[in-house]
Design brief:
Elements (H helix, E strand, L loop, with lengths): L1 E6 L10 H14 L3 E5 L8 H12 L5 E4 L10 H6 L3 H6 L6 E5 L2 E5 L15 H12 L6 E5 L20 H10 L4 E4 L6 E4 H4 L10 E4 L17 E7 L3 E10 L4 E11 L4 H4 L12 E4 L4
Parallel strand pairs: 1-2, 2-3, 5-6, 6-7, 7-9
Antiparallel strand pairs: 1-10, 4-5, 8-9, 10-11, 11-12, 12-13
Length: 295
Amino acid sequence: MIEILHISDLHFGDPFMPDRAGAVHALARQRDPDLVVVSGDLTQRAKRPEFEAAAEFLAEFGPPVAVTPGNHDVPLYRVWERFLDPYRHYGELISPDLDVVHRLEGLTVVCLNSSRSFTLDNGRLTSEQLSFAEEAFESAPEADLRALVTHHHLAPPPDLESRHSVMPGARRALRRLTDAGMHLVMAGHMHRSYIGDSLDFFPGDSRDRSVVIVQCGTTTSERGRGRESQRNSLNVIRADMEEIFVTHYLWRGDRGRFDPHSEHRFGVRPDPWLEDERLTPAGRPAAEGRRRDHG
């Protein structure tokens, strides 16, 4: 099985919490994942020293790292830089490419930059970006799991805060990339986690196929929101072409580490919801989940 360590919203700068960062590296050494995914907001104010610190943090991982920028990685108050050269520090210190394809044995991951200099918070994906992802997914080996990484979320959690509505065109993007064979979406931005299935949000769409949605909260900052206020989280995803297992981790201050909090299992192909007959009485798909109490 492929294993992915999914972290997000690091916010190097004033909100950053070094002890959480050390615990992330400790967990990565323990689990030895095939890939580390960082779904945006590496910095708080897109300053060069913040990007330098983020680059040092990323360099400590042994596995390959797939990263995408977030809205905080675009300058906010430095207006000229924001509109004329918004990704200068990101390009010099993190990655020169904003839309990237990562290929490992059994896995194709497409990172799309959803941040924009003309919007302060919400994101966008262009039709050209979706075509870029479609081509990558459609040309991937048949046995590859296909995953998308963005900063902004394509699907809302059940208790969505209105200020964090999904990206414009999110439903179109999910349709197009699902048709291209996408199995999994990883994102951040909301500073609270959610793990579910695309049919939970758009039940009128094709019911014989679905995409697993994995949202990560803030992993290393004090900016958690909602039920994750003052909390930090990350996800470990183990997957093949049969099933996707997601273990959601929360920070345990009394233990100084991230501990498993809940587990979720999803079928991949073919037709996992109907063939496995895992439907609720109301006819909506129910992902299997098992909560673990760690005291």
